[in-house]
Design brief:
Elements (H helix, E strand, L loop, with lengths): L1 H15 L35 E6 L7 E8 L3 H8 L12 E10 L2 E8 L8 E14 L2 E10 L8 E12 L2 E11 L6 H26 L1
Length: 215
């Protein structure tokens, strides 16, 4: 009885807590063995479905990290199926011409991509190592894919990021997308940074469209 009352109190506290406009760059895992999110999306002031909140932050290099946050009106499993099928990215992701996958171990794979870059930048080729797994949130078990650049695999300086999916309820999923890509070459950092917000929104919209069309 006491345990049930305690659980109810936690739920009421989450529901009644004032919503905060969560910066997508601040959404991260707490430093605990069970990979638990440090806050609950039930207390976040989330964008309406189909809209995206984006931000950027310094990441120790010449390019800032870009972050996007939004809600896709589909179960977590449906969103995960789209994001975890990296071999299909060239079918719907912006600027991806080729995307191949090489399994490494359960939940780990290499993803080779070729990007169509705007003139005068030549196409970019690289491979990232992707690691996937579950994360714990107060609203249930989520899922995450993190990737890092395989040094020497292409003609970019850096590429790393993550997708974090958190179940909001049975039919909606909170999506957090983080990306830092330095294409290198002669492209100035300010050009890459200024294009990041639009690029983040395009990727998130492409994933949402793919998820909704697959249901």
């Amino acid at each position: 009885m006491k345990r049930a009352a305690g659980a109810l109190a936690v739920c009421l506290a989450l529901v009644m807590a004032p919503a905060q406009a969560m910066d997508p760059c601040e959404v991260d895992l707490a430093s605990t063995p069970e990979k638990r999110l440090s806050s609950s999306p039930l207390t976040w002031d989330l964008p309406a479905a189909g809209r995206w909140r984006v931000s950027r932050r310094a990441a120790g290099g010449r390019i800032r990290e870009g972050c996007g946050l939004g809600v896709i009106e589909a179960p977590l499993g449906a969103v995960r199926n789209v994001i975890d099928a990296a071999a299909d990215f060239d079918q719907f992701m912006p600027r991806i011409l080729e995307s191949d996958v090489e399994p490494v171990s359960p939940g780990v794979y290499l993803n080779r991509q070729v990007l169509d870059m705007p003139f005068p930048v030549e196409d970019r080729r690289y491979t990232v190592r992707v690691e996937t797994g579950t994360v714990e949130a107060r609203v249930g078990t989520g899922w995450q894919a993190r990737w890092t650049y395989v040094e020497g695999s292409g003609n970019v300086r850096e590429s790393r990021g993550s997708w974090t999916l958190i179940p909001l309820d049975s039919g909606r999923t909170v999506v957090v997308y983080r990306l830092l890509t330095d294409p290198g070459g002669r492209l100035p950092a300010w050009v890459v940074d200024s294009a990041a917000p639009r690029a983040l929104r395009r990727v998130l919209a492409a994933v949402r469209d793919r998820v909704l069309s697959s249901q």
